[in-house]
């Protein structure tokens, strides 16, 4: 099989059997860059423009589909054993690396902020996975990562894909008209932040949301 075809196949979620009229989801990564000041939590988010095909006029986290270049891109440090272990529940080692690289790349492209060049992936924590429902014309198998904003550098700007970019206080964001998966991920983040380091290190399962029906562990 030609290499390009192999790489292309790895970008598509193969876990679902192909069905007529149902789009197979693409692997994707989003990154929640967080600031925490005591009980006050703020998260980097931006608004998708009205012309976007996926989630227009919605406040979202920086993120997007995994590209071929992400699968073999060089990093300054690899994912942590915990992040790797949780990602490998639903991804190969090759794809797990690509997901981390995609999260770093999308952060830089959409916000101008960086995890380094090449990026340091050891600062990423794996939070959860959500798959777009089958009835959607655009689908993603999205992994959500968390990074403490102290590990992020650069000037806020980006490529213009996200508007009104800033760190949104958690309560302000949750008071807005968020898409249901975005709201659920923010609520999951709050639970994760309440965990101790030891509890995070001991994780053997991670939350998965299918068809926006709430979380189950995988």
| Number of helices, counting only DSSP H or I runs of 4 residues or more | 7
Q: Major β-sheet, in short?
A: 9 strands, mixed
- Number of DSSP strands? 9
Distance between the termini: 31 Å
Mean of residue pLDDT?
91
Report the sheet-strand fraction: 25-35%
**How many structural domains?**
1
- Indicate the CATH architecture: Alpha-Beta Complex
Which outline best applies? globular
CATH superfamily: Nucleoside Triphosphate Pyrophosphohydrolase
CATH C-level: Alpha Beta
What is the helical fraction, as a range of percent? 25-40%
Which properties best describe this structure?
alpha+beta; 9 strands; 218 residues; Nucleoside Triphosphate Pyrophosphohydrolase; nine-stranded mixed beta sheet
Description:
This protein has seven helices and nine strands. It has a single domain, classed as Nucleoside Triphosphate Pyrophosphohydrolase, CATH 3.90.79.10. Residues 1-7 have low confidence and may be disordered. 36% of the residues are buried. It has helices at residues 3-11, 68-72, 81-87, 93-111, 170-174, 180-193, 197-201; strands at 26-37, 40-48, 59-60, 63-65, 125-131, 140-148, 162-169, 207-210, 215-217. With 218 residues, the protein is an alpha+beta fold. It starts with a helix and ends with a strand. Strand 8 and strand 9 form a beta hairpin.
